Amino acid sequence: MGSTSALALDFPSPIATTLRTAKTTLHSSYKLRLCLINTRHQAIQSHASGYSQASELPDISWDSVGFDNPMTTDYMFTVKCSEDGNFSDGGLQRFGKIELNPAACVLNYGQGVIEELKAYKKLDHSIVLFRPEENGLRMRMGAERMCMPAPTVEQFVQAVKLTVLANRRWVPPPNKGFLHIKPLLMGNGPVLSLTPAPEFTFLIYASSMGNTFKGGLEPINLVVENEIHRAVRGGAGTVNAIGNYAMVLKTQVEAKADGFSDVLYLDSVHKRYVEQTSTANIFLVKDKIISTPALEETILPGVTRKSIIEIACSQGYQVEERPVSIEELLEADEVFCTGYAVCLSPIGSITYLGKRVSYQETGLGGVSEQLYQALSNIQMGLAEENRGWIVTLK
Asked: Which Enzyme Commission numbers does its entry carry (predicted)?
């Protein structure tokens, strides 16, 4: 089956398309030509709706589907970019394996960035995305840091829409889970010297996910890592570089073997100031004031983090972005973390230098529960939203 080149408001049929190209400036040192498709919206709507019928769905136990056992969907989106910044030869294609040269820069030097988004299905069968433009912007920031060309924010969002519509039958029913969307930008071209790849691939695939927290939001238990650091000043801790996650596997595996949920990392200079967990940003509540570590050179600018801050401010809370010491964190009234997978998760305890400090035994505290309900209702399309955060697909 041939692929289709995409990134247009008129979504193409994955079966047949007519192509045209348009030049777009993406980065000061990269100019790329992106293939656009001049086909009717009805084509992909007709194609996708054929997959949306419940009778065509496999017999899925949604509660058994998760991050550890990803489910294959129908289509993925992929487009390549040559050294001159010209994206071409790509679009929707059947989900499947990809080929990589053993000398690919992403394999040898880790040149790549990732993003993650969710798509929820509403009772009216429409599908909602939460702030996809923020992920597109963060991918561009990461690509610049990693010396890669990247799609514009608009092109990123359109590619996400296209991928979701082509896989819409895999979006779980309301309250059963979400479609996990994974954009990936990598240097797939072969190079053995320490230089940027001669070719890049922008790829999006999707997988169905059941409810992440089947029994409700149970508090998680963190252990503070005092010697190994997730990121250092001047490094790439502020971008979603693929290598950032491999670096924390050792401490995370050891922490889980000891009965902890995740690891909380300190700054590498003073070994005193809180940064983040392996995959989530950290917040504390003290006397109704919400504080979170300021974004500097070592903390990932989470989309959920940004949204929680904006929601909290709109609800009248004082929010401070500043250095937060581990001593201050241990004396907080509430502690919670935010991230793509957890949305907002309460912290039940933090163990530091062998001493365990507990916050709450079950569920969320007053402030964190209020913020979680507000955010999750917006993400799932259950609450009226006037900030422009929701993109609806029908």
From this structure: 2.6.1.42
